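Design a sequence for this backbone.
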């Protein structure tokens, strides 16, 4: 921990019973990109790497199928994040919006919690209750006294980071990354992610190639068979008492 971080912690925790401040960067990270890394590094300079965590989930539903727009499992995301130089001990599998696997490690009365969101998400957080009293979430203000996570969590706004994606006209986002990385060669992959590991490159290509192939197959099916006309015809021709494949409850 650098001197500046140490001084901030002394100011925040002095005489209020707070012994530690932890910071959490939650998100889907599908996949984790350079802009995520820079945001994490910025947060870690505020509170120390040993106190700064990445919270993300597995994103697999009860049937074992990958959810829409979430092709990477937790282990795959962890592999990508590690390859970018993030400490493995700080990458935690949890609900990013209720990270109990992280917070349960600490004394809720003696540990202050800071959660980082982008500007848009931070603006959606409710900071007051219906009666006008302070809500659980409060804006983080550097140097101000904090309470333990049993009472409050503090929202810090992530810096806006713009990173150009070679070969893509637009700002970096999860959707843009998935589209570009699905067709990137290894040199292009390194330019975009900063990752040189051929094993990680191969894993990402395999995940995104299958995801892109499925999307292309759906598009070809819609174009070839005129799915809209089929749906319209079905809506007019099915008799009211027609049985369906899912059983009696779907009559």
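Sequence:
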């Amino acid at each position: 921990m650098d001197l500046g971080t140490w001084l901030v912690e002394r100011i925040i925790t002095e005489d209020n019973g707070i012994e530690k401040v932890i910071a959490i960067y939650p998100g889907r990270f599908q996949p984790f990109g350079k802009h995520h890394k820079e945001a994490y590094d910025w947060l870690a300079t505020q509170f120390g790497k040993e106190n700064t965590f990445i919270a993300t989930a597995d994103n697999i539903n009860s049937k074992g199928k990958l959810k829409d727009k979430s092709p990477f499992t937790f282990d795959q995301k962890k592999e990508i994040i590690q390859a970018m130089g993030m400490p493995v001990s700080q990458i935690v599998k949890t609900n990013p919006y209720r990270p109990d696997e992280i917070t349960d490690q600490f004394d809720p009365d003696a540990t202050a919690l800071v959660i980082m969101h982008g500007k848009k998400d931070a603006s959606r957080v409710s900071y007051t209750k219906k009666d006008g009293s302070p809500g659980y979430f409060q804006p983080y203000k550097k140097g101000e006294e904090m309470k333990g996570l049993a009472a409050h969590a503090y929202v810090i706004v992530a810096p806006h980071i713009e990173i150009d994606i070679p070969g893509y006209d637009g700002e970096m986002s999860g959707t843009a990354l998935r589209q570009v990385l699905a067709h990137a060669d290894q040199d292009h992959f390194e330019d975009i992610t900063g990752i040189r590991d051929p094993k990680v490159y191969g894993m990402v290509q395999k995940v995104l190639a299958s995801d892109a192939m499925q999307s292309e197959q759906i598009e070809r099916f819609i174009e070839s068979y005129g799915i809209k006309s089929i749906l319209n015809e079905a809506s007019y021709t099915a008799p009211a008492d027609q049985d369906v494949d899912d059983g009696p409850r779907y009559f």
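Residues 215-225, 234-251 have pLDDT under 50 and may be disordered.
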